[in-house]
Amino acid sequence: MAKYSYPAVFEKEQEGGYSIYFPDIEGCYSQGETLPECVENAEDALCLMLYELERRGVPLPEPQNIRDIKVKEDDIVTLIACNTRFYKNYFEEKSVKINATIPLWLKEAGEKKNVNFSQILQQGLKQYLEIS
């Protein structure tokens, strides 16, 4: 997971707003009414697409030089930056509930000491799986 920057093209629409595409990322599109909204939507679209490519192990394309991109007169070309770590945290590291079985006496002993069972289980699993 890393930080990336890719050129985006904001195409001015006749009815207002912009359509957004990334010349280097096939299938990565968005849109927005205002330029600030476009930048935010473009960041989100780029991050989601790159996160998915990383997750599937697909090599990421090299971003082309922003000066080499040919557009219409009213279009805007700009670099959009993102960090896919946020999406990894959001999608992969969210907590989930599981059922675990322990002896009653162990549960009661832990409760007397105000043990956070979820935290202890996570720590134990990380140690067992040799994950830091």
How would you sum up this structure, described in words?
This protein has 132 residues and is α+β, with helices and mostly antiparallel strands. 39% of the residues lie in helices and 20% in strands. The protein contains 4 helices and 4 strands. It has helices at 35-56, 85-92, 104-112, 117-128; strands at 3-12, 18-21, 29-32, 76-83. A 4-stranded antiparallel sheet has the order 3-2-1-4. Strand 2 and strand 3 form a beta hairpin. The longest helix has 22 residues, at 35-56. The two termini are 17 Å apart. The mean pLDDT is 91.
What's the layout of helices and strands?
Layout: E1 3-12, E2 18-21, E3 29-32, H1 35-56, E4 76-83, H2 85-92, H3 104-112, H4 117-128
Antiparallel strand pairs: 1-2, 1-4, 2-3
- Radius of gyration using CA atoms only: 23 Å
Helix content: 25-40%
Kindly report the average pLDDT value: 91
Largest sheet: 4 strands, antiparallel
Instruction: List SSEs in N-to-C order.
Output: EEEHEHHH
Task: Give the CA-CA distance, first to last residue.
Answer: 17 Å
Number of helical segments with 4 or more residues: 4
User: Judging from the principal axes of the Cα atoms, what is the shape?
Assistant: elongated
**What is the tally of beta strands?**
4
Uncertain spans? none
How big a fraction of the residues is strand? 15-25%
Could you list some keywords that capture this structure?
4 strands, four-stranded antiparallel beta sheet, alpha+beta, 4 helices, 132 residues, elongated
